[in-house]
Amino acid sequence: MLLQLKNIFKWVNSGGQRIFLLKDINLTVEEGEFISVMGPSGSGKSTLLNVIGMLDNFDEGEYHFLDESVHTLKEKHRANLYKEYIGFVFQSYHLLDDLTVYENLEMPLLYKKYRSSERKAMVADMLDRFNMVGKKDLFPAQLSGGQQQLVGVARALIAGPKLILADEPTGNLNSQQSEEIMQLFKTLNQEDGVTIIQVTHSEMNAAYGSRIINLLDGRKIGD
Amino acid sequence: MIKSLFKIAWRNLIKRKVFSSISILGLAIGFGSAILIYLFLSYHLSFDDFHPNQDRIYRMATEEHMDDINYSASVPPAFAKVFREDYAYAEKVAKIVDREGLVLDVEQNGGINKYSKNIMFAEEDFFKIFNFPLKNGGNAVSLSAPNTAVITESEALEMYGTTDVVGKTFVLENDATIEITGVLKDIPNTSFLNHEIFISFENLEKYSEFAHGENWGGITTNLQCYALLKPNQDIATIENALLELPKQHRPNSKNTHIYKLQPLSDIHLNLEYGGLNPVFLVVFGIIGLFLIAIACINFVNISTAQAFYRSKEIGIRKVLGSFKRQLFWQFLSETFLISLFAMILGIVLAILFLPAFNALFEIQLTMESLVSVQFFGFLLALLLLVSILSGSYPGILLSRIVPILALKGKLNHNDTGGATTRKVLVVTQFVISISLIVATLVISRQIEYATQTDLGFDKESIVMLQVPETMDSAKFYDLKERLKQVVGVQQVSGCLTSPGAGDTFWDTTVKYNNRPEREDFSISVKVGDEDYLNTFSIPLVAGRNFFKNDSITELLVNEKFAEKLGISSSEELLGKTLAVNGDRVEATIVGVVRNFHDSSFTDEIKPVFIAPTVRWYNELGIKINHLNTKSTLEQLKKEWSQTFSNHIFDYRFLDERVAEQYETEQRYLSLSKVFSGLAIFIGCMGLYGLILFFVGQRKKEVGIRKVLGSNITGILTLFSIDFLKLVLIAGAIAVPFAWYFMDVWLQGYTYRTQIHWWYFAISIVAVLVLTLLTISYQTIRVAIKNPVNSLRTE
Ligand SMILES: Nc1ncnc2c1ncn2[C@@H]1O[C@H](COP(=O)(O)OP(=O)(O)OP(=O)(O)O)[C@@H](O)[C@H]1O
Ligand SMILES: [Mg+2]
């Protein structure tokens, strides 16, 4: 088991009223799964993903990640945990505009204790694997959306995470680019054994996964 | 890691060129000023720090207790010998006496060159107390024999064209032939001693009998007495022991002397004993801090305003594994990089402006003073201080950003924080600017007041000539008659000093009428002939002028004298006798003159008497009509040189001499002008950056407002109103602040101008106008653009 959510609630108080963003979520994810989260806009998909990614807090319930009880951990510990095991891919890529492709890939490594030669090797490896050696000195603005997202995925992978969280990774891409990214996810999942949880609106993308979770108004429906 | 941080920092700089230039330029000006101010302060604090025994060297000084206390950096001439021989405190005691404008004849290439020089008559031990070495490094100065001298290397070069002058001679005052026995290394600029020629003390007798003799009767400020104490002496004990000296030697004097030992390190910066006012340095230091503060404020304002733009970057970095601490350091290192650029630029600016700065404050700072361990220490400290001051707050703000909000783009300006802080900082800048403008206005008004107020005498179109040697009556009246005949000359008067001569005064005690005791105040002696009143236009309020005479039988006093005696009617003084100069002279008061300002407005008007004595005339005051000054001066020179054929003709205008008393104030004024100008400039730049940012951020709003029908004025008002409010708040803070400090400053003047409300009005309006101009430029640029463009970019 990679992670387990038990009776997770998340709410915000607005005008004396409690608005639930997540209601009684129970979810167990095994290593090697490829899960798609679906649901209408505003149903809490991003919220759930952020909770899993430990970027956001929840108000009630238990969250176990590997052997750790996330709900009892201090902020700093939690940050260490996600930095070590989780890679993020965003709908709008969130590359740093001031850095080249190479530097964007290198950045997560700078925050971990790798030596300069190790970093070089790892980045070179990634560039090679994603066929981007020729583009390493370009800035994000000089790439197409699909290429940017490729960099985004490569950056999420570079430090060797166990879990990749992707919030609508293809939301800004055309269908051909989308397919390319999904194919990549599938390979990663099947060949490298990386666990993937993605949020998507598209049935077609969801089909790449092994399991689909449906959300409505912060509640899990079906399974 | 570091490399990557600097890379990002660099790219950020390049990307936001305008903001970076504003930050860097502002900081550079701040640094440049701080460097100059540092050099200035360390120059003044380093005076005479090169003597090996400096902490054992003292100058003998006197507190003169009469109805008030006078501080004199001198002692009676007899003091040195007694302190040397009757007491066991000192290893060495030496006195020096300076005389200005003595004539030296130097033979060169068969001809004779005449120089007018300031001479220091010195006892040989002077050079054993201090470290003023000879050219060869030793201190074996030989001055004990009469007619010997030592001179500095540059003086030797000037007079003889070589430094190899031992054994050469010059003629002093057309009389004694003096032989040079040694050549000194040049005296450092940072010394109390600024003489180049030292002549044996034995030669002094001819030029000042009083200073040369063993006299206890009075003090001449031309004399200074220094002592090198034995180790581990207690100063209070010595001063206590010296209390008996006045009792022994001046038992009947109303002027009670208390002798003091002034440490060498105290000489340059002790106002009471004629040093520089240390407040001046403090003010300088504070202004330096102000400038740095303003520059840092700019930086903080601009970077916190930009935090919003950078929030996405921060969010991503956090998600990818950066800690708060690392982000904080990232930001700090960016600040450091910017500060480093600014510092390099600041050093360049400082070097460029060093000559102008030297000229302004009449000092000689050199580039060499830039190359020292202390200076680099100072630069490093300054760099770190500024980086930390201006980097840490924005750093904290940025590192606090919550990543998911930043990534969602849901942050607004209040979330990135600092809006209130920015307002506070902008207000602080305005407060500093307004206060500096007020200070400039008040100082210049006080100088104007002092130089344009009626001083009680006429100082325009009066030429002062020297009387280089003592004259008898015949010689004097002959010269005076010839000078009077010169075309353009209206009046001529022989005198000791003109009115308004500042610190050249001669005080004495007096006995009035048949009162049994001498008065407990001293009176200023204005020796002058019967034309003194006419020449300097000093009006009589009672009685008449004295008749032409060679010595004192009749005299004039001023109104202040009557006041000091407690006599309300000037008429009552007429016909009374006055015993002056240790009762040696008794004369009748025949007239009372109106009060006039003899010294700077910091001092109260003193009681004065005016009486003639030909042999004391040191100067000739000549009232001319200014139609043909040049030819009149030439004629004057001709007549003067006929009497004093062996001397060098020199003249001063009285109004210039009077203005000299306000030299310090003039410097304050230049200081506050230059630095308030800089402060305002840096402040405006920061404001420009801030407004550039806000306007840029509200482009869309401007577009929408325009589409909805607002005109440029409306938009301008919208943007200006916030900043104008800040100026007014700053004004409200600056008024009491500046009022208080300028009032304290003015309290130093017995005669002073008022602080008017409109100084504040002018300052605030000036800042308002500058702010408005700064805002308008940016706003109008955005406002005249076609709104469609700014709306479409979203
Ligand atoms: N901090 C918050 N305060 C109040 N409401 C919030 C907050 N964060 C999210 N919400 C609300 O919670 C609901 C779920 O938001 P979430 O972003 O998870 O939806 P989503 O399923 O990802 O939608 P979409 O498909 O549009 O991305 C939305 O109605 C949103 O407005
Ligand atoms: Mg979403």
Structure description:
Chain A has a single domain, classed as Rossmann fold (3-Layer(aba) Sandwich), CATH 3.40.50. In chain A, the strands form 2 sheets. Chain A has a 6-stranded mixed sheet with strand order 6-7-8-3-9-10. A 4-stranded antiparallel sheet of chain A has the order 2-1-4-5, covered by helices on one side. The radius of gyration of chain A is 18 Å and the shape is globular. Chain A starts with a strand and ends with a strand. In chain A, α3 packs parallel to α5 and α5 runs parallel beside α6. With 223 residues, chain A is of the alpha/beta class. In chain A, β7, α6 and β8 form a beta-alpha-beta unit. Chain A is 35% helix and 27% strand. Chain B is an alpha+beta fold and 794 residues long. Chain B has 3 domains: 343 residues, no CATH class; 214 residues, no CATH class; 178 residues, no CATH class. Chain B has a 6-stranded mixed beta barrel with strand order 3-4-8-5-7-6. In chain B, a hairpin with a 4-residue loop joins β17 and β18. Chain B starts with a helix and ends with a helix. The chains are: A alpha/beta (223), B alpha+beta (794). At the A-B interface, α3 of A face α1, α10 and α13 of B. Bound molecules: adenosine-5'-triphosphate and magnesium ion.
